[in-house]
Amino acid sequence: MPRANHRQRLLDGALECLRTKGYAHTTARDIAAAAGGNLGSIGYHYGSKDALLNEALIEGFRGWTARISDRVRAIDADNPLQRLQLAWETVLEELGRDEALLRAFLEALAPAGRSPELRAQLAGFYRETRDDVARVVAESIGDETSARVIASLLIAVSDGLQLQWFLEPGEAPSAEAIGAAAALVLSMSPGARASRGASARSARPR
Description:
This protein is mainly α and 206 residues long. It has helices at residues 3-20, 28-35, 39-46, 49-73, 80-97, 99-112, 116-141, 144-167, 175-187, 190-203.
């Protein structure tokens, strides 16, 4: 079998193990068995089991975020708040389809504190995600500089909501609740208050 195909089989096997056994409990033997290979091939192609698991984790989440981005781009809604609500519905649906991958990702965060390599890989993944989300936001607002800041905020909120959903799904806010909360926050902004004040003044009888 060509080396490239063998390398991909190892990656696929590691991703399967992440979903079935988790990041912390997957062994090199588990990956070799899932890939139909041998222990030596892991070191040959990836250097170590940890390096292979890390790459598989990133690839898994790269595919996950790509699916979400594609679905969000396909949303037919001119109102940004409506797009936000529908986007969160998409995230919730994808979480339900691949909860095991989210669990593996959360397991990998603690080791990242002591592994510069894993931390660098996760940071790189976050940069990719931020750039992708920023492109989607820029399509809605037309301001690339602001879109990048908004993307960072959306990722932070999304990560927190995903953690809530993972720990206590019944208490995580629904897409409708998030849309209503975002509308409330925007209504409290200085610009919105100034606009309401101007409207009220113009409505007064002269």
